[in-house]
Amino acid sequence: MTREWFLDSAITLAVLAGVVALLQVIWVLWRDTQARRARVLARMGSGYGAVAGEEAPQRLMVTDTRLQRVMLRGDISVSESAFRGLLFLLLAVLVLVVLVWGVIAAVLCLATVGVGLWVYWFRRYSARRLQINETLPGIADAIIRGLSAGRTLDNAVMKALDEAPEIYAPLAFRVRSAIEGGRDYVPLFEDFADLYQIPPLVQMAIGLGTGQRHGASVQSVLAQLAESLRGQQQLRRDFMAMTGETRVSAVLFAVVPIALAAYLMLANEEYLQVLLHTPQGNRMLMVAAAFEAVGIFWLYRMVQGVGRV
Fold first, then answer.
1. Whole-structure pTM over 0.90, yes or no?
2. What's residue 57's pLDDT?
3. Which of 3, 39, 297 is nearest to 174 (CA)?
4. Which end of the chain is more exposed for a tag (fewer CB within 10 A), N or C?
């Protein structure tokens, strides 16, 4: 590594930092504008309708921005400033990898980091979906107990969410604000169900909306929903116990080739240089990556739906 190489690397990183800073400023301005507009429309509520010639207010949402929704799904507590800092760090590392080992190595590093982050996020997201499905019957029972005790539907819903697990905290906060402000809180249940893909929560929202608008009793609907969910959870546990070997085999078939390839490349420096810096090695890497991607997709399709809620 000569002095010119270090100088070129420093200039490249400086230009890259300037471009990233400019993009951050533009993104922050656009994000703040969209968030301010969403907050104004949320305060207007969803029950007033649209005035002639004006845009209809958006429905109430549990979160305001797309990044917050993604983070909430995976239960990841990272601020937007920290998220931008991590992106900049990853981009700087990729530039260094390109300068030292080449574009192929940078693409492999980016793919590895992307797949690892997605697996981490998806596992946390699946765990939260499972927790919601397992605790939803208890929330339905709590609402029924509140109605049987003489509370109004709004108070029963608010009390049940206050006693719910921590995962319902964003929903409970927004529902309480909507009830205290005299707004319709049913869209919040629908948005929370859409956030985690929970169809039974949509059914609960429909029942609550019917009881809220027409004054009908929702106790029988909630009782049937809770009983149905408990039956589904028992069937899921039995099915997971019967398909455990299949799921473990699929994970091993997907992970072992990647781990073995990484070990061989790191253990043999000459082999690594051939793969990264020769046309034949590049073709071998691309073919292997393509076969691995097809294999992982095939395995995912084979076990897709096993144990899902």
1. no
2. 44
3. 39
4. N
